[in-house]
């Protein structure tokens, strides 16, 4: 199953945040509770959960914005807290790239697309500082993400959300990243544009052997892009394994709740409601029983694990 | 709907044209659109961003602002042409006849006013109720959307996104409007909260019998929720039909394309068989 050592591995990672302070009393909020997962080359792992469950915190820990309170994050087997010094950090940042949710906020409106792609090339020494060579490389990159070479001279406001997200992907290709952390990259795009962007990610994964951490609250896109899925709730991974297993044979009540909430066009809403009159109360109940920490895990299939409810 | 009488159109949009005036001349965002909504019906407008669906929502309530301009057509609501109403008549008309929930409606509450005042503002402007009566009405509305009454003295930021959305819906119900326009009411929320809110809207609709103009780009959700759907493409209404027809028998190539744009996760679930011969086991981490 496991092709090689993972590009990135989270081992029992815990992250606490302190809230309050000053004149108020301080409190500890555990954002991540014993998180373990690994990401392999040419594969995608989807981290699925509702807002506030800690999925973006995972990405922030991986990019070294925060330090873990406990546990280890290994990049190609090396603990990332030991990555220090300018050159080492620069190299790490080059290998681990992010794509953000808001394609409108992640490009500088005062610069052309050429600037956005040429700058990382120069910063990371991926190309000689030669106008002709830079230009050729930028056009190559644009071609890789299926954008016309004319795009180079445009400004971000001249592009659609989908095109901007493609520019962001070209950026990750420019620096030759190994791991892409994609935090809700399609949730601000139209349904009709999403598939194109996802297909591109799929291609990047295969052709450039990139590893993806795909963070989303949308099971439908996770199902499309990721081989493996981990469902997160309140800082815990409650169910994980092969995406098809998790979606088709969900075991944890929270996973079931998430799946039941995804609209199925073949069932009329009136019928959905009839079967489930107390949906809100059920949802509330499931949330409360799922939030306690538990050490018991059931292995349901070769690669399908479910955390058992505590108590 | 399963009413015995012939449905009477509550809203009729006839040859509606909306233009945006730009430096390069007029850009027609809505081109000769025709549709109607019956009493108690949920009508959906689907399409990608920029297709003109929100422009229609704004035009129906005459809330569009320059450079948008209604350049032709009629919007007949319950016998009156909305396009011809004066500003004073419009003030009377909005909220009492048509109420609106906008995309990111949770941000349409005033952050510096307690909820109480926001409810009273709407209720007292449009009725003769005293402050006490208005508060009483507000509390009943909060019961309907299942938010504890005592929270009426809270500020909007003290509520979660889903709760704020429910509060906006409660305000919409305040004056028994006959039509509620909902423009992407759940787009910013996660799926479980989306489902909770839609369920509540649906049950309220069954109870109070209002009509809904529902706008979203999520065709799966729309097919589930709406009775009839209109599909918009580049300012034109390319197909209008019952939602099940749109699902199973889409006529226009654009509608077909919209469907193929996204695989549903439920497809695979229906044909799933578990691999045989794996013994389940419990592990302690």
Automatic annotation (TrEMBL), chain A:
Keywords, comma-separated and alphabetical: ATP-binding, Nucleotide-binding, Transport
PROSITE patterns noted in UniProt: ABC_TRANSPORTER_1, ABC_TRANSPORTER_2
InterPro entries attached to this UniProt entry: AAA+_ATPase, ABC_transp_ATP-bind, ABC_transporter-like_ATP-bd, ABC_transporter-like_CS, Oligopep_ABC_C, P-loop_NTPase
Residues annotated as transmembrane: none
Name of the protein: ABC transporter ATP-binding protein
GO biological process: peptide transport; transmembrane transport
Organism of origin: Motilimonas pumila
GO MF assignments: ATP binding; ATP hydrolysis activity
PANTHER family, alphabetized: ABC TRANSPORTER, ATP-BINDING PROTEIN, TRANSPORT ATP-BINDING PROTEIN
The ABC transporter domain, residue ranges: 8-259
TrEMBL record, chain B:
GO cellular component, one term: plasma membrane
PROSITE patterns (UniProt xref): ABC_TRANSPORTER_1, ABC_TRANSPORTER_2, INTEIN_N_TER
Residues in ABC transporter domain copies: 11-259
Cellular compartment(s): Cell inner membrane
UniProt keyword Cell membrane, yes or no: yes
Topology term for the membrane: Peripheral membrane protein
Alphabetically ordered keywords of this record: ATP-binding, Cell inner membrane, Cell membrane, Membrane, Nucleotide-binding, Translocase, Transport
GO-annotated molecular function: ATP binding; ATP hydrolysis activity
Pfam entry (one): oligo_HPY
Listed GO biological process terms: intein-mediated protein splicing; peptide transport; transmembrane transport
Main subcellular location of this protein, as a coarse class: membrane
Family per similarity comment: Belongs to the ABC transporter superfamily.
Identification of the protein by name: ABC transporter ATP-binding protein
